Amino acid sequence: ACLDMGSMEGLIPVLMCRGGARQVLATDFADLCAAKIEAVKHYYRVDFEYKNTGLMYGLHAKLGRRSFDLINCSGLLYHVFSPIAVLAGVRPLLKRNGLMIVTTNVVLDDRYVMEFNNAGRIQDEIETYWYISVPLLDYLLRYLRLVPVDVLFWPHTDSFSAIRYIFDQPSANLSVLCRATDNANDDEWMGRSSRAAWEYQGHSDWKLADRQPVSAIRYKDNGPRERIDLWEAVRTREPVPAVSPEQDSHTLRLSAFS
User: Fold this and answer.
1) What is the pLDDT of residues 46-73, one digit of tens each?
2) Checking CA distances to 181, which of 44, 120, 205, 236 falls within 20 to 30 Å?
3) pTM for the structure as a whole
4) Quick one: residue 64, left, alpha or beta (phi over 0 = left, psi -120 to 50 = alpha)?
């Protein structure tokens, strides 16, 4: 069972269905792409549920007491006022031991900071707000009981897009695969805060998270299982290369069907 957040035209839900998902729920702020989604479902011969959620906060309340083996939160966190509140609101819907993909634009900075898009210095786009630093993203994920186990990244210096991605700080697009865990005790403060902080409890439903069934979802070929340090991985691993063969990319093209 899969949840996709901010689905737009439905590329990720299509891939989830083609990958064999039993159940797929696509979500977005409003019906901006509803007609396109229906066309995509028809021409690609897939079926998935779609729901408007309004702003992406509090999805555990808006979607009811549902359970998902895989949640995809990609291309979303830099478009919201509070990235941590969005993650906290969807976290209770992930099954215990489930997987979550978090993909967002980040600043390549070893400090625990977020850069704000004042005067459009990061992007001209009017709904771009925050770029999180890599260490802070790592800490926030673990604080919300999401352990990073794999990562891919693409430096914005490799971008050939018409969109301006390069600004006065080094940045990248980072995609993190996380495994749900049952506690947040990586340090003494994290443990105390996760047990008793009002914001931690108020923006989420940890009782629901603890009641979720255990997922049997596996990473391909059993994949990585151990926690990784995101900042260390970004500094030592090779970035994702530019895609040249068309079969190595995914594009939705309704015009291909005549």
Assistant:
1) 999 999 999 999 999 999 989 999 999 9
2) 236
3) 0.93
4) left
